[in-house]
Amino acid sequence: MISRATLDEQLRLAPTSPTKTFVLDVHTDDPDAYLADLVGGDNVEATRDASLFGVHVDEGDFWVDQLDDRFWSFHTDMPTSDARRFLHARVEDRRDLDWMWLPSEHLRRVSAPNTARRVRTEFQGDQLLGPDAVTSRLRLQATGAEASRLLDYLSSSPDYRSAVSLDGIQVDVGDADLGRLTEAVNRLGTFAVTGNSLELHLQFVRSVVLRYGTFVRSLEQKAIGWAALEGESVEGGGTLTGQPVVVKFSRPIPDLHRFTQELFAARHPFRLWGWPTIENDEDLGAIARVDAVDLHVGQRLRMDIGTTWMRIYLEQGSCGNTVARLVSNLQHRFDSALALVDSELQDGLLAQQHNAST
Known about the structure:
Elements: E1 19-26, H1 31-39, E2 44-46, E3 52-57, E4 60-65, E5 71-76, H2 80-93, E6 97-99, H3 104-110, E7 115-124, H4 126-129, E8 137-143, H5 148-155, E9 166-175, E10 179-186, E11 190-195, H6 198-221, E12 225-228, E13 238-241, E14 245-248, H7 256-263, E15 272-273, E16 277-281, E17 285-294, E18 299-305, E19 309-313, H8 321-333, E20 339-340, H9 343-349
Antiparallel strand pairs: 1-5, 1-6, 1-11, 2-3, 3-4, 4-5, 7-8, 7-9, 9-10, 10-11, 12-13, 14-19, 14-20, 15-17, 16-17, 17-18, 18-19
C-alpha cells in the first residue's frame, strides 16, 4: 500500500512530464466525507497515511495530501490541462473550495534564497484604469540567471511600478542531503517540478503554503464581530471587535464610477456583485459605498472606496481567502504596488514576519 514515504514511486518529477501540485483552500469538518463527495467515493483509495489519499478518475491519478487540514495538495503527473480542468470544475461548483491567490510578493519570496531562472508578469488594467493610463497592459517573460533584476528595474520606475504584477516564477532549489529541483509556481498555487527529490518538493510547497496560510488567517483575525461583555450573553450587551482591512493605492483611481462599475459587475476575475452609491465627503472627497456579494463563496463583503484607498469589512466567520483573492486581482488589474495600512497585514502581504526587517 502507498504511503507518503513511497509516494516518489508514483510521481516521477521527469523533465518530459513534470509533476504538478495544485493547492486548494478547503473548508470542512469531515475531510474524508468531503473528499469522497468531491471526487466520488468509488474513486478514492486509502493509503498507509491517514492524511494521504489516491484519487483515480478518468483524467488520471491525483495523490491528495491533507496534512494541512485547510490547504490540501493535489499531486499528479497527468497533463496540466486535464488536471486543471478537473479541479476547476469542482472549485467553480462549490462555495467552500477555492484556489490559493498568491500576492506578487509571495511569489517573489519564493526566489529567496533560491536562484530565479524565469519570471513572468501579467498586468491587465484596461477596464479599471481606462484609456488614458500610462501603462494599462504589461506582459513580459524574462529568462536567465538574473531574471528578477528586470522586475526590480521596472518597479523602481514611477511609470511602471504599479503595473509590475508577478504572475509566475521558476527557481532552482537545492539541498546537500535531499537533491536538486526546478520549481515553477504561479499565483494560483500551481507548482510544476522536475528533479530528483520529492521530499524537497513537498518541503518547498509547505513553505509557500505556510506563508500564504499565515496571511489569510491574519486577515480573518481582523474580521468585524461582536463579543459579549464579561458575564453577559451577546444578547445582553457586547463590544464590537475587529477592524476593516484598509488598502492604500499607489496611484489614484482615475474614474471612480467606472472603477466601481467594473469591480462589481459580477464578472471574472473579481466575481463581486453590488450596486455602489457615490457620495462626496468634505474631507475625503468622493467615496463609493457598496454592500457586495462574493459570488464564489456567497458571502457578504461591505466596502468603502475612495480615490486612493479601499476599506474592506470582512465579517466574522467569513473566509480571509476572499480578501486575498481581491487583493491579488487588484494587483493584476489596477495597482501592483498597493499596500495594506495595517503593519501586520502588510508584513503578511510581503510574506514577512511581523516587524521583520527583511
